[in-house]
Amino acid sequence: MRKLLRHWEFILLILLVGVFILMSNLSPYFLNLRNLLDSTVHFTEKGVIAVCMAFIIISGNMDLSVASNMAMSAAVMGIAFRSGIGIWPSALLCLLVGMAGGLFNGLIITRVKLPAMVATLATFSLYRGIAYVLLGNQAITGYPYEFATLGQGYFPGTNIPNQFVIFIALAVIFGFILHKTTFGRSVYAIGNNEDACRYSGLPVDRIKVILFTVNGLLAGLAAVLLTSRIYSTRPNIALNYELEIITAVVLGGVSIKGGRGSMIGVVLALFLIGASRFGMSLLNIPGQMMTVVIGLMLIIAILLPQLLDRLSGKQGKTA
After folding, report:
1. Cα separation of 37 and 44, whole Å?
2. Angle at Cα 299 formed by Cα 51 and Cα 245, nearest 5°?
3. In terms of pLDDT, which residue wins out, 311 or 93?
4. Exposed / middle / buried, residue 146 (Cβ in 10 Å: 0-12, 13-18, 19+)
5. Residue 140: beta bridge partners?
6. Strand partners for 161
7. C-alpha dist (Å) from residue 270 to 64, 164, 203
């Protein structure tokens, strides 16, 4: 048990079970399977980006522009649809714009040699500003029914939301890449010692550009899913999503310093946040209180591993 408690994923699993036990006793509607499945749409859009954000943070970097990239991509999609382009070509354009935004981030970081946090903080404002320039204060609506089913519908023959299926598929794919491929090992190596990786001939800059480009692509995909779910495009969509995504990744055990973390931890953290929010919404707890709870979870996620490391170090010295 002591060895298991050193694994943050096991602690997250215990916390998740605890949330289920607590909320099921406080609300008779919590353990309704249909309700639980429907509640996943409130974190799967963030989860779609979190699976790649985990790579970026493990590599010792950060992307603060993802939510603004979502808004910019969605704005371009809305304008394209309103101008007469079909919804699916417009959705494809949304993906391409998101990917271009991520590529721009990667090029600034690797070519101009700006720190990732500084570069993406700048594009955080730039991309959101572009969304407001394109749309102003208006909202674009009137999307066709078949588009709405993407974000609001269910996988054929089941009660599982389409968004949840997409998220799980991406988590499995990115988890395999992170833990079972040379590319994933390279990401860990960069996070542990970037300079040593450069001296050993690892294409550090190329890997960074790939990570930020893919992150932008997933931001575009999240924009498509979010627009489909809320059935409108506005320049202020996805406000503060970047903080919630980073919170989920760090809560999942990914070290903010880089070099450590797992995909299963990120997935468990998303489930933990989603279950907590769903349970608190059933209890009519205000959204501000939910934010406080998530903030406390993040503080625990940062402090507890350090405390466990110190305790294990003391035990080693004692032995």
Report:
1. 11
2. 25
3. 93
4. exposed
5. 233
6. 154
7. 18, 12, 31
